[in-house]
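Course assignment 3, question 2. Fill in each field.
Student: A.L.
Task: Predict the tertiary structure for the chain below.
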Amino acid sequence: QVQLVESGGGLVQAGGSLRLSCAASGRTFSSYAMGWFRQAPGKEREFVAVIRWSVGSTAYADSMQGRFTISRDNAKNTVYLEMNSLKPEDTAVYYCAAATRILSTASLFRPGSYNYWGQGTQVTVSS
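Answer field:
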């Protein structure tokens, strides 16, 4: 089992920044990749970014490329999502998730590829 706890959400004005954290515990060595997703009210869960634990390679959704940065601290078993130039449409609950199988990058864009999920943290961007 892997337990994930997100933190760092909150209310920010448009153009502002937030850094989300996802602390992993339990069988963290079994995690292959960590992803961030978000879900706005009435919408499907949407891929944001992913990082592979061992090599640190990353991938982003097109709309977040250049504004969001995913990183990890292996020693702390923590993944971060730095979000800059935030827009009201970025308002959502943000979730981190762990994938334990070796998967292609395209597969890591899908929520179904992840085995474990955090409880989510709310991000609200005001205009």
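Instructor remarks: The chain is about 0% helix and 50% strand. The mean pLDDT is 94.
Grade: pending
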